[in-house]
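User: Working on a comparison across species. This one is Mechanosensitive ion channel protein MscS from Metabacillus indicus. Can you predict its structure so I can line it up against the others?
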Amino acid sequence: MDLINELMNMMTESLFNEDMWRSAGKGFLKIIGILILASILIKIGNVVIGKIFMLRTKSPLRISERRENTLVKLLDNVLTYLVYFIALLMILETLSFDVKALLAGAGIVGLAVGFGAQNLVRDIITGFFIIFEDQFSVGDMIRVGQFEGTVEEIGLRTTKIKSWTGEINILPNGNITEVTNFSINNSVAFVDVSIAYEGDIPKAEKVIEDLLLELPDKYEEMVAPPELLGVQNLGPSEVVLRVVSEVLPMKHFHISRVLRKEIKMRLDEHGIEIPYPRMVMYSRNEESRPKERVTE
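Assistant: Here's the predicted structure for Mechanosensitive ion channel protein MscS from Metabacillus indicus:
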């Protein structure tokens, strides 16, 4: 009973100790202030980074826009990690932890943990070489394995790829071994146009060529006037002509649809028929059947 009473008295003294509550309140407010200050510093840093790259747009030594977007995302990422790491150390110091001893111990623990964190180190090193070699940048259309989409962010450890249906695929940089980048060079759109065998092929070619010369002024995605290559194939009921067009990166899907519409409308204007599948049926009556001869 004496022990219980002594413990109760100690707890009561602690609960009603003004110095303890005053110290705890100061510590709590200091932690809140550190978190708020960290958030403000991150926002200011992001604005400063953006302003610096905006000023570089007027510089004769300006790098490509793709690379600028990538570096902005990366620097924002690094700034966030750095500020929150410093904020964590300040919070630990507020809670009366010996930060110097923790950092000294972290070096020893980090050495031991490093053997088990080889994948993390590989991800960071691979991410560095992706950016250094400019393999792809933010905004590029790429394919990595089974994932294909637009690069949303390149971080120190992961890369985020947004597919055309809206999903965000987060890939560790160390897993990116083969990349297909669709955004570096111009794309090529091609369209096959079918003309009936009964149609006037030279006339159809002349109509299409005249149309192709008009299209670059109408569609700025076209780098050069489209080209009619000629007869691509002889189908069951049609002659197939192929049209190709060099366009801006990843604009070939759009221009292919445009070419099909424009060519169809122009051929209709000149009465040139685009064939449709035909079926010829033969019927035989019973009288016309050859008679079977029965031999013994």
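For your comparison, note: The helical segments are 2-15, 18-56, 65-94, 99-114, 118-132, 201-218, 252-269.

User: Helpful, thanks.
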